[in-house]
C-alpha cells in the first residue's frame, strides 16, 4: 500500500513522506530563496498553508477512502506531536533548534498527518545529523534554544509583551528565522514544487506599510497568509517596534485603538 500513496504524492509534487503506526506523515516544502528580510518569517510570506495543505491532504484521503479505508487529515489541528512522529518515521530528524529537518528541503517544510486504518509498512527514522554543530545555539540572540519562552517568534505572536520583550525584538514583525538561516542543512535546500507556496509580493514591503495598514489592507492581503490569524493589531504593533528599532520617527503614528496607542507611548517613552 505504501507504493500507492508514494505514487499519488509524487503526482501531487510531494516527495517527503513517512509511515507510522496508524498514519502517514507528510512534509510540504515551501520556497525560502525568493524573499527579502523585512521582519516576516519566510513561512508567513505565502498563502495560509493550513488551507493549501488541506487541499492536497483531502485528495490523498479521498483516494484512501476510495479503496475502502478510513482516512482523516490534520494540519496543526490535533494534539499529535507532529515533529516527533515525523522524526520517528523518517521524514526528517529534530535538530538542536527544535525544527524538523528533512534531507531535501532542510527545515523549510510544513508538517501534516493523515490517520488511517490502511495497512502500511512502517518507515525507519533518520539519524540526527547535527553532530557537533552549535550554530543555531550561538546565533540565537536571546538563547531561546535553551529557553523557548524567550523565542522571538513566540514573542511576536503574544498579545501582550513587556518592555524587556519589546527590547529583545530585532526588527521582527512576525516570527524569526535566525536558527534556520544559519543551519547548514538549509544551505543546499531545494525549492518547493508546489506553486501555491511561492512568495507573495505584498509580504515583501517595508515595515512602514504594515505599521500604517488599515482594515481593508489587512483583510485583502495579510489575513490570507499564515500570520493573518493573529489579527491586525499585533502585526501593527510589531511593525512599529521594528521602525523604532531602526531609528525611524514614530510620533507621526496615531493608533486606532487603546492597544496600539499603549505601545506607541511605550516606544516614545511617554
Describe the model.
This protein has 270 residues and is α+β, with helices and mostly antiparallel strands. 34% of the residues lie in helices and 10% in strands. The protein is built from eleven helices and six strands. The strands form two sheets. A four-stranded antiparallel β-sheet has the order 1-2-6-3, sandwiched between helices. Strand 4 (93-94) and strand 5 form a beta hairpin. The N and C termini lie far apart (65 Å). The mean pLDDT is 93.
Lateral arrangement of strands in the main beta sheet: 1-2-6-3
Instruction: Give the distance, in angstroms, between the N- and C-terminal Cα atoms.
Output: 65 Å
Largest sheet: 4 strands, antiparallel
Oligomer: single chain
Count of discrete structural domains: 2
H-E string: HEEHEHEEEHHHHHHHH
The coarse silhouette is: globular
Question: Rg from C-alpha positions?
Answer: 20 Å
- β-sheet strand percentage: 5-15%
How is the topology of this model organized?
Layout: H1 2-11, E1 17-20, E2 23-29, H2 49-66, E3 71-74, H3 82-88, E4 93-94, E5 100-101, E6 109-116, H4 135-139, H5 152-157, H6 163-168, H7 178-181, H8 207-211, H9 215-220, H10 232-245, H11 258-268
Antiparallel strand pairs: 1-2, 2-6, 3-6, 4-5
Summarize it.
With 270 residues, the protein is α+β, with helices and mostly antiparallel strands.
Short key terms for the protein model shown above:
270 residues; 2 domains; 4-stranded antiparallel β-sheet; two-stranded antiparallel ribbon; 11 helices; alpha+beta; globular; single chain
